[in-house]
Write a structure and sequence with these properties.
single chain; mainly alpha; MYOD Basic-Helix-Loop-Helix Domain, subunit B; 2 helices; BHLH domain-containing protein; nucleus; GTP binding; HLH_DNA-bd_sf; transcription regulation
């Protein structure tokens, strides 16, 4: 039986740091893509520049759709 001894030459720390940066970047990109998708779905939403205002507009739109569905039941 052969036993190997492993030495961490700092690569593990570098890999964790790189992964953390990469993961954050990918997460931001996904959020941006989904926000753009929502902007395209909600009429007039693409005119709003700040995220809070845009999310409020999306919530209002979804609530109005929900009320329309409840009325038609």
């Amino acid at each position: 039986m052969i036993k190997f001894k492993a030495f961490d030459l700092g690569c593990h720390q570098i890999a964790r740091r790189v992964w953390k940066d990469y993961y954050a970047k990918v997460r931001r990109e996904k959020i941006s893509e989904r926000m753009k998708y929502l902007q395209d779905l909600v009429p007039g939403c693409n005119k709003i520049t700040d995220k809070a205002g845009m999310l409020n507009e999306i919530i209002n739109y979804v609530q109005s759709l929900q009320r329309q569905v409840e009325v038609k039941k």
